[in-house]
Amino acid sequence: MTHVVLESCIRCRYTDCVDVCPVDCFREGPNMLVIDPDECIDCAVCIPECPVDAIKAEEDVPAGQLPFVALNAELARGWPSITRTKDPLPDAEQWKDAGDKLQYLER
Description:
Radius of gyration: 12 Å
CATH topology: Alpha-Beta Plaits
Number of domains: 1
Number of strands: 4
Shape: globular
Largest sheet: 2 strands, antiparallel
CATH architecture: 2-Layer Sandwich
C-alpha cells in the first residue's frame, strides 16, 4: 500500500509532511503535492503533519477521492521531488477549508 495526497492540498501546498518523509517520496506541483507510489514505504509519518488532513493511506481514501490514487501516480512521474519544507502558497489560509478544488489543480 501507499499513501495518497487528496484534494484538500490543492491551492494550499503545505509542505510540513516533506521534512518527515524518510524516503523523499513527495513531488511538488504548481499548487499541490503528490506522493510517488513507487517510493512511498507506507510509514505514515506524514499523515499527522498535514494541517489540512490531505494525506491518507490508500485503503482509507474516501470514495469521492478515489481518483486521487491514480492522479498521484500520474503526476509523480513528471513533477520534481521536494525534500525540504517551503512556505505554503500565499492564499493557502483562504483555501484550506474549501471543498471541490479539483478544478483548480494546475498541472
